[in-house]
Structures are given as C-alpha cells and as structure tokens.
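We were asked to recover a plausible sequence for a given structure. The inputs and outputs are reproduced exactly as logged, with field labels preserved.

PROBLEM: sequence recovery
POSITIONS: 311
GIVEN STRUCTURE:
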C-alpha cells in the first residue's frame, strides 16, 4: 500500500443496520420520557436547557477534559517522530485532518481518541502500549482510533446520551423534592404523578443505558473493521488485542485507575474485574473482536487482487 494512498473504507451492512435499530429504539425510549415529563408538569425548558449546557461542555471540551484527567501530554514530531509519522500517515490514508497526538505516562497498554469532529481531534497512546507492541501492531491500534474520529463516534455517543443526562437531572430534582417536601401535591402535580415519574425515570435510565452501551459496543466493532481496512492488516490488530489483554492483567491497579476517565474511549477496557460480557460494558467481548478480525484477515487474504496496468 502506498504511503499516502487514500483508503476507501467500507461498512459492515449488518452491523450498520443493528446500529440504526438501536438508535431507533433509543429514540422511542426518549419519546416516552418526554411524554412522561409533560404529563407530570415538569418544566421542560429548564431541564432540557440544563442538559444541553452539560452536553455542550462535554462536546466542546472533551479533548481538554480527558487530557487533564489522564495526564496525557501533547507531543510534537520532534519529541516522538515515529509515533507522529505513524499517525500522520494513517490520517492521510483516511483522508482526514491530522489530529493532535499525545502520550500518557502509564504502564497500562492502551490508547484512546477523542474530539468533537475530525478537525478537532486527539489521539493518545500510553508508554505501556508503545513498549509492548510492535510498530505494525501499534499502527493497527492507531488505525482503530482514527476510525472512531472518522466515524464521529464521540458525537454520536454524546447525542445518544443527551436525554440520559436529562433523566439524571430529573432524578436529582426529585431527590431534593423528597428531602424537603415528599411527594405531596401542588398546583401542577400530585403524589401519584410524582411516583409515576420516579418509576418512569428509573426505567428510562436503565433501558437507555443498556441501549447506549449496546451502541458503543457496535461502534467498537465498526472501528475494528474500519481500522483494519485502513492499515490493511487485521491480523496485527487481533494480535495487539491478545497482547494487551494478557499484559493488562499484570498491570498495577494504580496505573489502570489513571485511565478510568477515558474508559469508554479506550481501545481496551481499563479496570481489572471488568466483565466485557456485561450488558453495561462499553466494549464487546475480546473473543468476538478477535474472531471478527481473523475472519476479515482471511477475507482480505483470499480476495482477488486488482490488476495493475501501467499508464
């Protein structure tokens, strides 16, 4: 593959359809929640306005917040030429702007990407992942992270989580109401309506969280697929996952905790004891990711090669 050749990424149609179905289901849950708020007399302008402000802060300042919480430091080409060139080369292949590059001092082998769009993006790797992976494996991981940026996954998850933020704010309002006034009635609501709102909000939070985590897992599968196409090397991405899984079990808990704030964005789940098969996991099961990548590797190996004609 040529150094700066643009790669046309494809999408797994089955995976894409499951993403769309999940988003439709999530929209249905949120529509139910809006009707519930209206019926209970909750001031929508206040609640939605607060949630919009919170979402806006998360959306526009996500890269700075993550860098501060993880201790990742932005680097220049002179400070880490091999890593910087690797990111630049893959960004060119993906036909996207060059993101900022950062390194986090941590023994935990991991990487993450954040940013509201391809023009305002960041790719970060830990010192641990640089030490444990070969250049081809690290390039495969960076391809995965750039695919998240290319697919605007941070934006998608932020929008998907918007009304979950609203539900959390409503729960806080109801908590203070119980502390100072119970479920007694007023001119807008009564005890029965408040109890219905409490149960409904809890249900919305539970179901919405399940759907958002499902969507997040699908987007990890999508980034694996796109990243493997970007590098043309799904086998190295599968091997990187195997190495990182084995190494993470040996990393001290203190190093893993440094990545907690970036857990949902990380290439690999960050906490020991984290069950990747949990319904609330942001990442798919490791075995499934590796199996899909090995299948893609076989498909690429057996695909007919296009004829090359001299101009």
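RECOVERED SEQUENCE:
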């Amino acid at each position: 593959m040529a150094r700066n050749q643009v790669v046309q990424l494809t999408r797994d149609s089955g995976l894409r359809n499951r993403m769309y179905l999940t988003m439709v289901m999530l929209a249905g849950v949120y529509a139910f929640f809006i009707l519930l708020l209206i019926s209970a007399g909750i001031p929508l302008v206040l609640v939605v306005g607060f949630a919009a402000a919170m979402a806006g802060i998360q959306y526009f300042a996500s890269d700075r917040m993550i860098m501060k919480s993880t201790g990742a430091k932005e680097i220049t080409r002179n400070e880490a030429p091999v890593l910087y060139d690797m990111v630049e080369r893959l960004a060119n292949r993906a036909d996207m702007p060059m993101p900022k590059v950062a390194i986090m001092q941590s023994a935990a082998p991991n990487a993450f990407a954040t940013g509201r769009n391809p023009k305002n993006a960041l790719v970060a790797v830990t010192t641990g992942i640089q030490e444990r992976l070969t250049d081809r494996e690290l390039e495969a991981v960076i391809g995965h992270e750039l695919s998240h940026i290319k697919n605007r996954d941070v934006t998608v998850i932020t929008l998907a989580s918007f009304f979950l933020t609203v539900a959390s704010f409503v729960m806080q309002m109801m908590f203070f109401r119980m502390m100072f006034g119970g479920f007694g009635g007023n001119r807008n609501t009564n005890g029965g309506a408040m109890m219905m709102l409490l149960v409904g909000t809890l249900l919305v939070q539970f179901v919405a969280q399940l759907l958002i985590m499902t969507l997040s897992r699908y987007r990890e599968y999508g980034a694996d697929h796109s990243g493997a196409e970007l590098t043309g090397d799904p086998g190295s991405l599968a091997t990187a996952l195997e190495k990182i899984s084995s190494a993470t079990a040996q990393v001290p808990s203190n190093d893993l905790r440094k990545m907690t704030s970036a857990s949902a964005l990380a290439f690999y789940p960050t906490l020991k004891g984290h069950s990747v098969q949990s319904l609330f996991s942001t990442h798919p099961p490791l075995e499934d990711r590796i199996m899909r990548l090995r299948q893609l590797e076989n498909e690429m190996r057996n695909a007919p090669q296009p004829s090359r004609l001299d101009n």
